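Q: My labmate handed me this sequence with no annotations at all. I'd like to see what the chain might look like in three dimensions before we decide whether it's worth expressing. Could you predict it?
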Amino acid sequence: MASVINAFVNPLTNRLEAPVRQHLKNVYACLSLSAVTAAAGAYIHLFTEILQANMLTTLGTFGLLLALISTPDNGKNQKLRLSYLLGFAFLSGLGLGPLIKIVIAVNPSIIVTALIGTTVIFVSFSISALLAERGHWLYLGGTLISVLNMMFMFSFVNLFLRWSFFYQIHLYVGLFLMCGFIIYDSQLIVEKFHMGSKDFILHSLDLLIDFIGLFRHLLIILTQKELSKYQRKQRNNKQ
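A: Here is what I predict for the chain of 239 residues:
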């Protein structure tokens, strides 16, 4: 096990300077704390009646996001900005509650599979981005934003057409888009640090959004596959 860990750590140590590595430690520590907070939000929606996902919590999510983005890091307000981030993560997890409840009704094991898949994909793409040549994947930014805009446009059109084909395309393209953003944002964090931005709280926000988006897409895709499998079994039984 130690040799496997060293196989990942040593190339990163050789590739990245000590200040960058320290910054990335802060970013991923902040991301881990945010992910746990999001999980707590989802748990509260599922198993308590303290809070439930609704329009008010959705507005709160956007409010905290705007508060974090609009509050510059001055070195003295880290606790305040961290509270904004954790509040955003908590309400984002709360917002996942209704989807997770549907998934549990289909097959609870999907949640574990999706979480493991999300973690493996996220870690793999992050490491590949950090091991790549500096700035090698930054060209993806324009392409990713363009595809994202096209997805929003097709989603709006599909509100009227309601074609399942469009929805499936949107779902799988969104999954690949999240993978692309993981690579892009991981390298962008390093570039921002070299340009003087040491705001690890805001940097972890980008990765948190990628992680939650990837998890959501995997949940939906795996649930659809499980439902399709069940429907085929039902048809076979009738025959």
